[in-house]
Write a structure and sequence with these properties.
The chain is mostly helical. The chain is built from 16 helices and no strands. Helix 6 runs antiparallel to helix 7, helix 12 packs antiparallel against helix 13 and helix 13 packs antiparallel against helix 14.
Length: 281
């Protein structure tokens, strides 16, 4: 029975890892039909629901798995993710803390705990969790005991955001630089650093970093929009106009109205008031 269940779980997990959430869910249900208390199948069935956006179903299945294995950190971590996605931030926090109480070295739970604390506006507490992960990364522990590369990048990036929210801009820049050193081709990280430099009034630095981000991700309305505002502040109207026009795509997108307003601002700053009104009509 156990051997058959193990083989069936492996087949179901192969479908899951291949992105066939429906096929995986059916396979997990088939296992549970034979063995309703199979905790791994319950957990993974809940995970397919979470990944499909059905958080209520995810929570129900994973809670049942946790009742069977109450100290399994992966189960508790994914239950926390489902609660977070459902907006149950207090419950999510509790799940991540239970996972860490069970296995203190379960780094994903610490990363997600920091994220849920940040979502609650508790930036100091969030920063402490991200810093704990960073400290482990920088310590002398063997590489196998450190967080994986993705977790390291996220720890620095999320620490930077928490520091930014706290108004500790110079420290935030340092964290972005650490993250970018680990992930130099991440356009979103570069854009986040550029946005911080823009807020600090370091417009030349922001422009240079936005261009690096656009070189990696040429079609990015938000980056183009921010770049347009930098050029506008520098008085480079032609460059600003080009950037705002790039931010208009796709028409009807989330940045379209802001891009139109930017184009109007360029004309207004250049003294072409009729052109500004024409854009806004």
């Amino acid at each position: 029975m156990r051997q058959n269940t193990t083989a069936a779980l492996q087949e179901a997990l192969a479908k899951h890892n291949a992105g066939d959430l429906g096929g995986a869910a059916r396979a997990y249900r088939a296992i549970l039909k034979r063995d309703p208390a199979q905790a791994d199948a319950l957990h993974l069935l809940g995970l397919t629901a979470h990944q499909s956006g059905d958080q209520a179903r995810a929570i129900r299945h994973i809670e049942t798995a946790v009742a069977i294995k109450p100290k399994e950190p992966v189960f508790l971590g994914n239950l926390g993710l489902a609660h977070h996605a459902a907006g149950n931030l207090d419950l999510a926090e509790g799940c991540f803390r239970r996972a860490l109480a069970a296995v203190p070295a379960y780094y994903p739970a610490r990363l997600h705990l920091g994220s849920v604390l940040a979502a609650q506006g508790r930036d100091e507490d969030a920063l402490a969790e991200f810093q704990a992960l960073i400290d482990i990364t920088l310590s002398d522990v063997p590489a196998v005991a450190r967080p994986d590369m993705a977790s390291q990048v996220l720890s620095h990036a999320k620490a930077a955001q928490a520091l930014r929210n706290l108004g500790r801009f110079e420290e935030a820049v340092e964290q972005y630089e650490h993250a970018i050193l680990l992930a130099p081709n991440d356009a979103e990280l570069l854009a986040s650093q550029a946005s911080l430099e823009q807020i600090r009034g370091r417009i030349d630095a922001a422009v240079e970093i936005y261009h690096r981000a656009l070189a990696l991700q040429p079609v990015s309305p938000q980056i183009s929009l921010n770049l347009g505002h930098c050029y506008l502040e520098q008085g480079l109207f032609d460059e600003a106009l080009t950037a705002f026009k790039a931010a208009q795509e796709p028409i009807g997108g989330g940045n379209y109205e802001s891009a139109v307003a930017g184009i109007a601002s360029v004309h207004e700053r250049a003294g072409a008031y009729d052109d500004a009104w024409a854009v806004l009509e």
